[in-house]
Amino acid sequence: SMEAKFQAAVDIIQKLPKSGPLQTSTDDKLRFYSLFKQATVGAVNIGRPGVFSPIERVKWDAWEAVRDLSNEEAMRQYVDTLNEFFENASEEVDIDALLRGPDFDPTIKENLPKIL
């Protein structure tokens, strides 16, 4: 189901190492954040943060930008975004070797086939 794929993708994102060659960009992080919120909460339901909270404001704007997606569609785009991330990364990084390495949570390897 799409929900199972989404849960697997969320788990992968949460367990990616914080350092090393496989890093999500700021844009990636915002995309994952906004789609996660849309999938789990729905359309943005809080006021836009003030000018003194610039990071929260950028996150709010990203969430607001996907407000018209159904939660199912947000889940699908989240999974697709993660697949694209791995596809792009594989051009520069040997992902199989990384997955076998000591820095990777073993559940990432278990979850990868579930998001395809």
From TrEMBL:
PROSITE patterns: ACB_1, ACB_2. InterPro entries: Acyl-CoA-binding_prot_CS, Acyl-CoA-binding_protein, Acyl-CoA-binding_sf, FERM/acyl-CoA-bd_prot_sf. One of its GO terms (cellular component) is cytoplasm. GO terms for biological process: fatty acid metabolic process; lipid storage. It comes from the Eukaryota. Gene3D superfamilies: 1.20.80.10. SUPFAM superfamilies: Acyl-CoA binding protein. Residues 2-91 form the ACB domain. Binds medium- and long-chain acyl-CoA esters with very high affinity and may function as an intracellular carrier of acyl-CoA esters. PANTHER family: ACYL-COA-BINDING PROTEIN HOMOLOG 3 (PTHR23310:SF120), ACYL-COA-BINDING PROTEIN, ACBP (PTHR23310). This is ACB domain-containing protein.
